[in-house]
Amino acid sequence: MSRPLRMFTGASSYTDLPKACCSPRLQQGGLPYAREAFADRVYDMDGQLLPRSMPGSVWTDKEQMVDQVSAIVQEGYVQARARDGSGTGRLPLQADTICLHGDGERAVEAAAYLRQALSRKGVQVQALHAGFGETS
C-alpha cells in the first residue's frame, strides 16, 4: 500500500485517526505518519468519529474543545459516547497532531482560543515537524 500511495499522492507524510484501518499499513510501509485527533468532534467507543448527522457530534463550545484536547494530550484519553446512546466512557487515545475543522462557524476564533487555553495549561503548541505535508 505504501508505494502506490506515495506515487499517487506525492505526499511525504500522512495523518490518520489512531484507530483507523490505514494507520498500521502506513507504519508498516515506513511512511511518516502522525496520529490525528479532533478538537471539535465527538468520538464513539471504537475510536471513530460520530457522524455529523448525529445530534451533539460536533463541539461548538470552545471550553468543550479545550477539555477534549487537554484530556488527549495530557492524559491520553478522550471521553467517548456509544453510538446507540447507551453511555459514555474513557477511550485511550494518543495523538501527534490536533485537527480543528475550518468549516465550522468561528473556526479561526476557536483555534486562537484553543491555543491560548492550552498554553495556560502548560501544553506546548508547535508545528508537527519540518517537511510535513510537502510533496516530493
Automatic annotation (TrEMBL):
Q: Which domain of life is it from?
A: Bacteria
Q: Name one GO biological process term.
A: carbohydrate metabolic process
Which Pfam families does the protein's record reference? LamB_YcsF (PF03746)
Spell out the SUPFAM superfamilies in the cross-references. Answer: Glycoside hydrolase/deacetylase
According to UniProt, the name of this protein is LamB/YcsF family protein
From the broadest rank down, the organism's phylogenetic lineage runs:
Bacteria, Bacillati, Bacillota, Bacilli, Bacillales
